[in-house]
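User: Some background: our group keeps a shared notebook of sequences we're curious about, and every so often someone picks one and asks for a predicted structure to add to the entry. Today it's my turn. The entry only has the sequence so far, pasted here. Could you supply the structure so I can complete it?
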Amino acid sequence: MNPFDEEERRRGFRPELIDGVRTAAIPLKDEDSDFDALIESIGDARFVLLGEATHGTHEFYRARATLTRRLIAEQGFSAVAVEADWPDALRVNQYIQGEEGDAEAKHAFDNFQRFPKWMWRNTEVLELVEWLREHNAAQGPTGVQAGFYGLDLYSLHASMREVVRYLETRDPEAAEQARARYACFDRFGSEPQAYGHATSYGFEDPCEAEVIQQLIELRQREVAHGTREEDALFYAQQNARLAIDAEAYYRAMYSGRNESWNLRDTHMADTADALSEYLSRRHGKPARLVIWAHNSHLGDARATQMGDQGELNLGQLLRERHGRETFNVGFTTYSGTVIAAREWDEPGLKRRVRPALRGSYEALLHEVGLPGFLLRMEDLGEAGAGLHERRLERAIGVIYAPHSERHSHYFYANLPAQFDAVLHYDLTSAVHPLDADAGHEEEDAADTWPFGI
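Assistant: Of course. Here's the predicted structure to add to the notebook entry:
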């Protein structure tokens, strides 16, 4: 047998493919200058999407924070938009911008109480938030203030409360009307899933008309010129729009995965666009946003098995709407540890991430033999063209199920079509949660479970 054929059989990859990727790889040295080449590639892009292959990896959070600081300080980016709920993130934003309220950064995270808390309540994000506050203070009252915003739509009840709270101090009669409209949800209790179940199966009438009417009325409001009041109205309108999309989302949960997924990612894309448009008006120039979310939301769905099955995502929508003004960065790892739960709504535990499956992109990048590197797709030469062949790619969310790893965490993708660049960290470690009930080490059963001794 040809020795190259034997090598390909053993590794699952052609040697020239590994060499092509190795040639294009830019080693990471754990320095801020690691991202010089990436910032050069980002150029004038207005939407920089920073992914993650898990929701609990230290190296991903640290790299995103470092790159975010540089984009804000050096390139004029003015917002960090994250896969989190709008009202929860706004409390952090108020702290960052020095508004009255929390005196310490850790208290600004107190609204993040919904599972998975560790996703934002961790030391890596805390340090970035403290830097953002210092950065804003240094800009002075006339400088552009950086902000921290949420893109997600799970906060149905919290967002409705914020709409009422906004109106209470400005128009008590309008607040009472809003309270009456939102009372439509009271009969379903505090769990939005109960609302979705009852209305999807025809047991109760939906509250769609009520939430739509509330947004219409908010959009008709006028405010006296002034940054604070303009901000407050925009935030309230976004909460009202979130209530509309969340109402539809919880009904769609019982119609199939694709519909609810597509509603959620469309909401995130619409929120990013609304935020960009508002900040552009505020600052008198096109706003530039850094967006943090999972690879599965940011990697272009059209290049994946997800897209084949009818799903779209945030990365796809922003590319379709903004073209080359969108720059998309994926993150990968071969093995290590991660914070993830065993089941939904359980504490996050420090879990061992198994080595990537043979033949996957992660296994291929492992063969490059570097502890960490940047791969810009523009640098792939002819030998690296084979990277376009669809391969397995791993995605670990808030739950990690190692015993059903292939089914639970892998899908087929074309990596260079998904992302403009990838940051690979071969051996990674768990993020550092702020809460005492998260981060405990737990050893998963051996690979031979349940048959081994």
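Suggested note for the entry: Residues 1-82+290-453 form a domain with the EreA/ChaN-like  fold fold (CATH 3.40.1660.10). The chain has 19 helices and twelve strands.
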